Amino acid sequence: MDWLNAIVQGTLLGGLYALFAAGLSLIFGVMRLVNIAHGDLIVLAAYLGLTTTVALGVHPLLALIVVVPAMAAIGYALQRGILNQTLGDDLLPPLLVTFGISVILQNALLEVYTADPQKMNAGALETASFDLGGLTLGWLPVLTMLVAIAVIAGLQWVFYRTPLGRAFRATSDNQDIAQLMGLNKAHVFGLAMALALAVTAIAGLFLGIRTSFDPSIGGGRLIFGFEAVIIGGLGNLWGTLAGGVILGVAQTIGAKIDPGWQLLAGHIVFLLILAVRPNGLFPRVAA
Amino acid sequence: MNLNDYSVTRTTREARIAALIGVVVMAALIAAPWWAGRADMRLLSELFLYLALASLWNLMAGYAGLVSVGQQAFVGLGGYMLFALTMFAGLHPIVAIGLSGVIAAAVSIPVAALLFRLRGAYFAIGTWVMAEVFRLVFAQISALGGGSGSSLPVDIVKSLAASRSGREALSYWLALAAAAGVVAAVYLFLRSRKGLALTAIRDNELAAGSLGIDILRAKFLVYVVTAAMTAMVGGLIFLQKLRISPDAAFSVNDWTAFVIFIVVIGGIGTIEGPIIGTLIFFALRETLADLGTTYLLVLGAVAIVVMLKAPKGVWGFIRNRFDLQLFPLGFRVRFPEKRKGD
């Protein structure tokens, strides 16, 4: 039963990791950009959520109304202001520029909020739980998982059922031809980053309700998201959810064996999958 | 016009002057224990070790196109190997540092085999995951102090030299030798046949491949050699610090972020770039260090602006402006005198 419990809790934890990963997966899919600052943007969203809840005295989930549009706006501005200039055949500029943004964000957060760990107070939601077949499930992890499923379903719908998604796919396939067809690729990329950071906002809020956070944890969140993307297979959003779940289960089982092994177990499973299936478990396109 | 009027040379007058200045500066630096204060020598040692790390990262990212944000894996591995080999195997610290290079090369082979499955930017994050794995593994080894780390025992420190000033001079010379050795090794490597292949890969990977260069093999070689040398520099770093902990040994900020800033600001893909970058980095640090985190904000912003506006860095700007090359790598055709004017 203990083991079953670990697996179920790990699965729910995977919902959070899928939320970390979805934004990363989206921008890579549309513009082949790997954003090293992604983890720090998640932490930024958590801090914006904290400020909103403290300033307005609202529940953290209500803060989403403020934080999601704010992060989307930041994403659009970041893409059009800086990141669009780095895109091209050369890998180095986007990597190094997002790395610089990561360092700037981390230290700016340190300056404003200090290094003290913070946490958002979500009241009864943090501890509320229900019984299911002998297992006790927290409402918060269940809600996180449901939101992760809804977010990924929503992204799938945007991608394959809306004009915006068509623009994303067209630009992803061939930027120049998309441009000839009347799409402004700078604008399309801006919208993609806005959408990615809107998802990041949700991820940051749930992170901040679930655990305490400080400005230095961004790198770790980036790594979890990245592992979920690679395990699931590039370009497959539902695969990313599966990747998050596999990572979450690996971590909770690792923690069950020895608390010091939690993170290590996750990384080892990732490396094993990389060794056996370098394209991930569910790649959308054959390599 | 006679073909014999043309000549192909590698070295230039500027390069010869630079070499001469280099020799003088080296002589002055070697003599530093007789003219510099204790604090200056510590600062210079740190500068040399950063120069070594930056030159190595530059070889990987600037020439082999392997952008790693996980070189702290090998810095930390080298540091821990120094502690483990001296404490448990009773080796002399300098022997331990040499051996840690061999161990790091052996470790880096399976690591590279795994990480090379990731392409481009994902390779970068993969290297970071690997560094995290190293950090978590060393945090589990209780003989080395686990998560809180350990200090180098006094008798091992004393085995370097009996007197304090003797130890300080020795560790300073080791740092200087590391920097000079790495820069010289990179220079000689790039002048060799393999180095030529690497430069071709830097300029155009597709073209290099079509000319018969085994790109994967060249990159693999660079990764392994860089890992070994980075680990030896890591051993020297922690020989200076005398204390190691997983967070300090595998710090992404200290051993990767700063190194990347140095190379980007100085000029990526050149030998001179990391040297200029290290000097700028330390000048900035010594003047802005009091500002705390603001200093890192400035550094990050400078690196972004350089990357966007002058992607070849400070040295790239100088080279284009004055046609300088202090470390003669490329060949140039010298035209006959009389044709110079037309």
Automatic annotation (TrEMBL), chain A:
GO terms for MF: transmembrane transporter activity
Protein keywords: Amino-acid transport, Cell membrane, Membrane, Transmembrane, Transmembrane helix, Transport
Record localization: Cell membrane
Topology versus the membrane: Multi-pass membrane protein
Entry's transmembrane regions: 6-29, 61-79, 91-110, 139-160, 188-209, 229-249, 261-278
One cellular component (GO) term of this entry: plasma membrane
Keyword Transmembrane helix belongs to the record: yes
Pfam families reported for this sequence: BPD_transp_2
Keyword Protein biosynthesis (UniProt): no
GO process annotations (BP): amino acid transport
Family affiliation: Belongs to the binding-protein-dependent transport system permease family. LivHM subfamily.
Protein name: High-affinity branched-chain amino acid transport system permease protein LivH
Automatic annotation (TrEMBL), chain B:
Pfam families: BPD_transp_2
Keyword Membrane carried by entry: yes
Chain segments annotated as transmembrane: 17-35, 47-66, 73-91, 97-116, 123-143, 170-190, 220-239, 259-284, 296-318
An annotated Gene Ontology molecular function: branched-chain amino acid transmembrane transporter activity
Membrane topology, as annotated: Multi-pass membrane protein
One GO cellular component term noted in the UniProt record for this chain: plasma membrane
Principal location: membrane
Subcellular compartments: Cell membrane
Keywords: Cell membrane, Membrane, Transmembrane, Transmembrane helix
Record InterPro entries: ABC_transp_permease, LivM-like
Name of this chain's protein: High-affinity branched-chain amino acid transport system permease protein LivH
